[in-house]
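User: My notes are a mess, but here's the protein and flavin mononucleotide's SMILES. Can you give me a structure?
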Amino acid sequence: MRPSAAEVLGVPVSLLQSGMGGVAGAELACAVSNAGAAGCVGGYKLSGEALSAILGRLAAGTDRPVGVNLIPEVVGPELLGRQVRQVLDETPDHVYLSLFGVPDDDAVLERITGAGRHLVVQVGTPEDGERVAGHGAVVVAQGTEAGGHLLGTSTRDELVGVLRARLPGSCLVAAGGIGSPDAARRALAAGADGVLLGTAFVVAHESRAHARFKSAVAGGKGSETVITDVYEIGWPGRRHRVLATSVTETPAQAKKFIGRTVVEGKPYLVPRFSAAVPTEATTGRIEEMAMYCGLSCSDISGETSAADVVAAFAHVLPTVPSVENS
Ligand SMILES: Cc1cc2nc3c(=O)[nH]c(=O)nc-3n(C[C@H](O)[C@H](O)[C@H](O)COP(=O)(O)O)c2cc1C
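Assistant: No problem, the inputs look usable. Here's the predicted complex:
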């Protein structure tokens, strides 16, 4: 029998929280892991002291498996290499690595698994899934229902089904549009061994999303999201699903600064069309910024704790009770 995501990652519940740049800091990741699922911080473009700071908080906040998410296509091979080295050097062995998309060079994958770390890679095509499974990664199949940047053009359960047929023995996790236990059940029925949630954790108390972003997700419907490419400053060339805004409706607007934010103590101006999400440290025209959001928002109705999100899904997912008591 193939292993569940919980068995592979050493957590009680086969539920992964997406490492969301800006939104998923150490507080959210540790809360999710301490509640029995696999939490993850968004590493995004952080490096050097800023990355060290978040890694330190992560290691201090939980002794359970927890992850660091990196995005190869955003940072490029040189910075990715430095980020990976830093995570491997500065974190204990129970910290796993999560990648959004497949890096050009498979050597990065080998370096992570060769260091004895678990590797989770999100993909949008069967070919990418096969490639990373060949390196022992947990494969996250992302469907177009997902909030955030989109790696492929298939719907979630379509991709899960194809990958399951091609990779009968691999650990496969479904992502995209999962906001309710029923949606999780459907993904498992399609062949997944666990699920990954992003949008459902945006509204957690521990998430760093701006309060207006959280209430827009909680009050939003899937039909109010759009797939667009307008929020391209900082991450060009990849389509993303966001809540519709005046910027997605009328993209012909001036590229002027519409706000300010702070990342690990450093101030930044936020231009219109920036790929950066509005966080609790962001001020300005929040309603014009990139509010990544999946179709799953239709099933999400209010702010809640990370532990409550995990509890709401745990009863329908594969679990490993013995891990809970260890
Ligand atoms: C606000 C937000 C930010 C995201 N940022 C990242 C990221 O930094 N890295 C990543 O691997 N995926 C990121 N994602 C995509 C998720 O990994 C995942 O594909 C998606 O959340 C699944 O669909 P759902 O939002 O309907 O649960 C983000 C998603 C959201 C909603």
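The pocket of flavin mononucleotide is lined by residues 18-21, 23, 42, 44, 69, 71, 100, 122, 142, 145-148, 175-178, 197-200, 202, 277, 292-294, 296 (CB under 6 Å).
User: Great, I'll file this with my notes.
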